[in-house]
Amino acid sequence: MLGKIISFEGIEGTGKSTQIQYLRTFLSSKDIDSVTFREPGNTYIGEQIRHLLQHDPDACNMCAETELLLFEASRAQLVRELILPTIYNSIWVICDRFFDSSTAYQGAARKLFEKIVHQLNHFAIGECVPDLTILLDIDVDLALKRLQGRKEQKDRIENEPTEFFRRVREKYLQLAAEEPARFFTVDATLPVETIAEKICTHVQKRFAL
Ligand code: Z5A
């Protein structure tokens, strides 16, 4: 049987990485092997693109169209090099962001033409649509506050104004409302363990584990 694909989405600092760890522990308790992939990245090509997109100071003049195409290029490589072989091996894939990020960040926040973003997303992923997408939702100011203590320097996208992240959040909520069968939205202001319990209970029911 094919492994499932579960993606996590949300603005920065919503707790995606934290919750992915809890979900993998839960899956493991059900004897399900899983791997996590983060976007952009994982493949050699994807990691080079990640550096260009986020950390290369010489790429700070990147235009929105280039940004979108680079995210899609990293995604196309990830799907074919790692995600498909993994699910064909009956291993579940947990994606720390996937194509909904491009819809929210490049489509809604950068205001690129939505139809083009949609077409490029589908060109990059092919048939590889997640079985479930978990949206961790939080007020933008609260999420930014959580990240204030971080030591690392802010990357190119993190330096965008608060309004940019408000548009991202709004788009995510709209996507979740439009596709209730795929999305499960959780209030990310709850305590870590409560969120994990909600997610694991949903996954257990959704996939009859
Ligand atoms: N991007 C894009 O524009 N288009 C695309 O198509 C794709 C991505 C795929 C990737 O960022 C950037 O690329 C991202 C979107 C853009 N840019 N922005 N902004 P990344 O991979 O470097 O990081 P991230 O995905 O945005 O997430 P993150 O910074 O790693 O945060 P997180 O994983 O959601 O949260 P966390 O690390 O688990 O938790 C953050 C902190 O909150 C930490 O101190 C936790 O201990 C704390 N935390 C977690 N949960 C809680 C609860 N429940 N209560 C209190 N505190 C909590």
Can you characterise this structure?
This protein has 209 residues and is of the alpha/beta class. It has a single domain (5-206), classed as P-loop containing nucleotide triphosphate hydrolases (Rossmann fold, 3-Layer(aba) Sandwich), CATH 3.40.50. Helices cover 54% and strands 12% of the residues. The chain contains eight helices and five strands. It has helices spanning 16-29, 44-55, 64-88, 99-109, 114-125, 140-146, 162-178, 192-206; strands at residues 5-9, 34-38, 92-96, 132-137, 183-187. The radius of gyration is 16 Å and the shape is globular. The protein starts with a strand and ends with a helix. It binds ligand Z5A. Ligand Z5A binds next to helix 1, helix 4 and helix 8.
Helix and strand topology:
Layout: E1 5-9, H1 16-29, E2 34-38, H2 44-55, H3 64-88, E3 92-96, H4 99-109, H5 114-125, E4 132-137, H6 140-146, H7 162-178, E5 183-187, H8 192-206
Parallel strand pairs: 1-3, 1-4, 2-3, 4-5
The structure holds ligand Z5A.
Quickly list its features:
single chain, 209 residues, alpha/beta, five-stranded parallel beta sheet, binds ligand Z5A
